[in-house]
Amino acid sequence: MLSVDEAQQCIRSAAMALEPELVPLENAMGLLLAEDVVSDIDMPPFDKALVDGFAVRSQDLVVGARELEVIAEIYAGQAPWPASEGITSGQSVRIMTGAPMPPGADAVVMQERTDHTTSGAGRPQRVSVNDPRFKPGQNIMLRATEMSMGQTVLRAGAQLRPGEIGVLAAVGRDSVQVTTRPRVAIASTGNELVEASARPGPGQIRNSNGPLLAALVTRAGGAPHYLGIARDTHDELLGIVRTGLEDDVLLLSGGVSAGELDLVPGVLRQLGVREVFHKVNLKPGKPLWFGVLEHVSSDAANRAKPNQPGSRRTLVFGLPGNPVSVVVCFEVFVRPAIRRLLGFADPGPRIVSAVLREDRSSKSDRPTYWPARLEQIGAESHVRLVAWKGSPDLRAMTDANCFAIIPSGDQQLRQGDRIQVLSTEY
Ligand code: AMP
Ligand code: MG
Prior knowledge:
Layout: H1 4-14, E1 20-24, E2 37-38, E3 48-49, E4 53-56, H2 58-61, E5 66-74, E6 91-95, E7 107-110, E8 114-118, E9 124-129, E10 140-141, E11 152-154, H3 162-170, E12 175-179, E13 183-189, E14 193-194, E15 205-206, H4 209-220, E16 223-230, H5 234-244, E17 249-253, H6 264-270, E18 274-278, E19 289-296, E20 311-319, H7 323-341, E21 350-356, E22 360-364, E23 368-377, E24 380-385, E25 402-406, E26 409-413, E27 418-423
Parallel strand pairs: 5-6, 13-16, 13-17, 14-15, 17-20, 21-24
Antiparallel strand pairs: 1-12, 2-11, 3-10, 4-6, 4-7, 5-9, 8-9, 18-19, 19-20, 21-27, 22-26, 23-24, 23-25, 25-27
Helix pairs in contact: 1-7, 4-7
Bound molecules: adenosine monophosphate (AMP) and magnesium ion.
Residues 188, 190, 192-193, 205, 207-209, 253-255, 257, 259, 320-323 line the site of adenosine monophosphate.
């Protein structure tokens, strides 16, 4: 039986970043940029006012308070003034945030630092400035301060967060080359399963793993493709697996243990999926099955790296049926695989060290991933195990935000010991 490290190594060698694709900006969140992005404009495109107030000439104000004539009003969206119509000594212009500065003016006094008189409706005629901390250049952002035309503003490899999405829009990109989001097919297997909308009959349970896996895939950055429930019959499994093998990853839950009706490995082999390993030394999650299907084709749908001609592949995980085993196997093996397909240089899993907050003795032939709560106290991470009744007990996971890793063997852990923790929040 493989160790966790050995199994992770097998998966790493099978999971390579997908070819980049062009996607609309609204679908690019979280993906890695696959091109350098150059600005097509100066930002701001003109010297702009940063507050509502009055555009003035500094020379008029360096001596302190002063009354000025107001010759015009400028709103955001108005075209910049022709240079020939700049303001001259003793004049000012009422200006709104985001509007282009009038030629001749080199500062804005915010309206809260002024008194202005209006004759009836419309713009004020005169303004009296009282701005003791006035500085030439204040409240203006000069053209191209943020970025200039031709400047590289984002580099290939950057992860697109909301800020990067906004910058892409600012430089005129409504679509962008990113690493492809892997499509991840999800199917639950088991005669006992009904969907969440149904009330389970005698001997039946609800299919937690379908929605659970879809949520895990979404959090990992993949695109879930839910296929439904397959009964434990050869034909139903064959049909659902065949569909799932068209995606980049196929996740099956249940049917990989040693029971009479654990038909999944046989069906996968029949459909040409090469078994890489079956069973890993961890708890829960031991029955995990992993294999690879190589698609031999040269069609346009080929999304594999060009250095692997015609070798689009599907990574197939046969996950155990119990929901907590599903979560553990996903976090330890599947999420790093999805992140590798996405092109991340640090695909995880994320293991941190934390101080145990209780005594705990444990005797197991396998390292155990125990649902736990990680808490930051000052500069130190602390971990507390939650009450947990074993791999079917998914409810306990709602109290947890990580897994404490308890090594195999006869362990007498003491409060204050440092242990490793599998973090799930990234
Ligand atoms: P199996 O590996 O198919 O023998 O399943 C192991 C255990 O997990 C059984 O008790 C199943 O009822 C349970 N199980 C299997 N699939 C699911 C599922 N989709 N949702 C919740 N529990 C499941
Ligand atoms: Mg089953």
